[in-house]
Amino acid sequence: MKLDLPEDAQLQGVFADRMLFSLRSPWQVGGRTYAADALLAVALDDFLRGGRDFQVLFEPSERVSL
Length: 66
Known about the structure:
The protein is mainly β. 8% of the residues lie in helices and 39% in strands. The strands form two sheets. The protein has a four-stranded antiparallel beta sheet.
């Protein structure tokens, strides 16, 4: 199944019904922009139904990266 994620996103896995993935480039979706190298999570069932309510687990800064 092809997931509706950017081509350069990396799926990190599924944990407790949440899909975790990291971004390699900025991504604009659902009226928000997520930074490159951010780690995001979303309820897998909601995502497969079209939900795009992502939780930012990690966002890089000038001196900190994932």
